[in-house]
C-alpha cells in the first residue's frame, strides 16, 4: 500500500463517522520520515477538514532513559500532535523512564488489546531494514519488548544528539513485528536515495528473516 497524507487523512476523517465508543486506532512512527505526513495532517486539522477526537494513537518505540529529553520520541510526538484536538488520554507512548520496563511493556500490550488492535500502522523503514527498533532477525511473532540497539542504529540516530555517540541510548522499548502483522492495514513511507536498496528488497524479495521490513511486505 502506498502511503500519502491524502489517503491517511481520508482514513482519519472516517473516524468521525464511528460511534463515540469506537475509536480509529493508529500506530505511529517517529523520526524524520513521517514528519512531512504529520505536518500535512495538522494543516488539514487547522483548515477544519479533520478532527482527531475519535482517534487513538500508539507510538511504536521509545528510547530507554531519554523520556524528558527534547529528542525523545515522547517529545517528538507531543510537539507535533499537540497541534490537533486529539485527547491526551487517547495518546499512548511507551515510557522509557519507567521503573519497571517489563511492566511497562505488558501494560502497553494490554492497552493495544483493549483498543481492539491497530487499524492502521504508519511506519517508515530504516536504512538497516528496521521497523521501529525491530532489527535484523526479529521474530515474526515478537511483541512489545526491551531491545538493545544495533550499532548502525546508534550511528544513524547520533545526528539528533549532537553527533555524539555517547549521548545515544543503547536500549529502547519497541513494539514487535507481530504488532505490524496484526494491524488491519500498513502504510509505509520510504524517503531518500540511501533507502533505495531497502525499498528494492521489500518489493522484489519474498518474506524472510533477513530484515523486518520484508516481514510485512507493505510498501
Automatic annotation (TrEMBL):
<comment type="pathway">
    <text>Nucleotide-sugar biosynthesis; UDP-N-acetyl-alpha-D-glucosamine biosynthesis; alpha-D-glucosamine 6-phosphate from D-fructose 6-phosphate: step 1/1.</text>
</comment>
<dbReference type="GO" id="GO:0006048">
    <property type="term" value="P:UDP-N-acetylglucosamine biosynthetic process"/>
</dbReference>
<keyword id="KW-0597">Phosphoprotein</keyword>
<dbReference type="InterPro" id="IPR006148">
    <property type="entry name" value="Glc/Gal-6P_isomerase"/>
</dbReference>
<protein>
    <recommendedName>
        <fullName>Glucosamine-6-phosphate deaminase 1</fullName>
        <ecNumber>3.5.99.6</ecNumber>
    </recommendedName>
</protein>
<comment type="subunit">
    <text>Homohexamer.</text>
</comment>
<dbReference type="GO" id="GO:0016853">
    <property type="term" value="F:isomerase activity"/>
</dbReference>
<dbReference type="GO" id="GO:0042802">
    <property type="term" value="F:identical protein binding"/>
</dbReference>
<comment type="similarity">
    <text>Belongs to the glucosamine/galactosamine-6-phosphate isomerase family.</text>
</comment>
<keyword id="KW-0378">Hydrolase</keyword>
<feature type="domain" description="Glucosamine/galactosamine-6-phosphate isomerase">
    <location>
        <begin position="20"/>
        <end position="213"/>
    </location>
</feature>
<dbReference type="GO" id="GO:0006043">
    <property type="term" value="P:glucosamine catabolic process"/>
</dbReference>
<dbReference type="InterPro" id="IPR037171">
    <property type="entry name" value="NagB/RpiA_transferase-like"/>
</dbReference>
<keyword id="KW-0963">Cytoplasm</keyword>
<keyword id="KW-0413">Isomerase</keyword>
<dbReference type="GO" id="GO:0006046">
    <property type="term" value="P:N-acetylglucosamine catabolic process"/>
</dbReference>
<dbReference type="GO" id="GO:0005975">
    <property type="term" value="P:carbohydrate metabolic process"/>
</dbReference>
<dbReference type="GO" id="GO:0005737">
    <property type="term" value="C:cytoplasm"/>
</dbReference>
<dbReference type="Pfam" id="PF01182">
    <property type="entry name" value="Glucosamine_iso"/>
</dbReference>
<dbReference type="GO" id="GO:0019262">
    <property type="term" value="P:N-acetylneuraminate catabolic process"/>
</dbReference>
<dbReference type="InterPro" id="IPR004547">
    <property type="entry name" value="Glucosamine6P_isomerase"/>
</dbReference>
<keyword id="KW-0119">Carbohydrate metabolism</keyword>
<dbReference type="GO" id="GO:0004342">
    <property type="term" value="F:glucosamine-6-phosphate deaminase activity"/>
</dbReference>
<comment type="function">
    <text>Catalyzes the reversible conversion of alpha-D-glucosamine 6-phosphate (GlcN-6P) into beta-D-fructose 6-phosphate (Fru-6P) and ammonium ion, a regulatory reaction step in de novo uridine diphosphate-N-acetyl-alpha-D-glucosamine (UDP-GlcNAc) biosynthesis via hexosamine pathway. Deamination is coupled to aldo-keto isomerization mediating the metabolic flux from UDP-GlcNAc toward Fru-6P. At high ammonium level can drive amination and isomerization of Fru-6P toward hexosamines and UDP-GlcNAc synthesis.</text>
</comment>
